[in-house]
Amino acid sequence: MSAAEFARKLRARERVVGYWVVLDNPIGTERIARLGYDYVAVDAQHGLLGYSGLLNAMMAIDAGGGSVGLTRVEANDPAAIGHALDAGSGGIIVPLIDSAEDARAAVAATRYPPRGRRSYGPMRSGLRIGPRPANADESTVLLAMIETPQGLANVREICATEGIDGVYVGPSDLCLAVGGAFPGDPAVAEDFEQAVADIKEAAAEAGIAAGIHTPDGATAARRLEQGYTFASVACDLVHLERVAGEHLEAAKS
């Protein structure tokens, strides 16, 4: 799938499913990108890879041929966003968006003038999307993470920000945002589910995509049935450990 086709599907609120990568393991990432996921998201915020790892991951995703590479950047920072885009990311996930002002800053960092302030230097993105800024703007998706008390309170204003293509729920931080003592805290399960529903509804009202991070395919399917339009299945490190443990238990038994 091309970046332009992915952007069209996501903006049309068609269902898309992705996978989450945190390891600096380009061969593994390439194999994942061949499985049929619509996108593979590389985590530059909490992931275990630096810029060279991100660059190698984007090349691996392109080599896989089936998925579009996205990047969750470490912060709402023009330099970090520009680096990820120049490495070949087809879209950016920006964490910790608290307000419409934050959202506008993220939009500006992903768009070339006059729509934004992205600096021109498409070292790899020009190979995939083309060198013209207007084409790059049209093919690049921007997803704002809703995961803080302020972001939740301002979600409708964030969703209404021109240039935002979708919102993305970070469930661990969102659980803490609604008062949980730890991610998945059952004491706030009702409040958490209400927040998840509120974010989905705010996105639908604004006509933008609504996505959520999930631990497995079954949870992703459930969230899509609830009205989310895209979901990520997480992640390579967790699945590697889980499968290795399952095989160990089977061998011991």
UniProtKB/TrEMBL annotation:
HpcH/HpaI aldolase/citrate lyase domain span: 18-239
Entry keyword annotation includes Transmembrane helix: no
SUPFAM superfamilies for the chain: Phosphoenolpyruvate/pyruvate domain
GO CC annotations on file: cytoplasm
Keywords from the UniProt entry: Lyase, Metal-binding
GO terms, molecular function: aldehyde-lyase activity; metal ion binding
Keyword Metal-binding attributed: yes
Stored Pfam families: HpcH_HpaI
Membership in a protein family: Belongs to the HpcH/HpaI aldolase family.
Protein name, per record: Aldolase
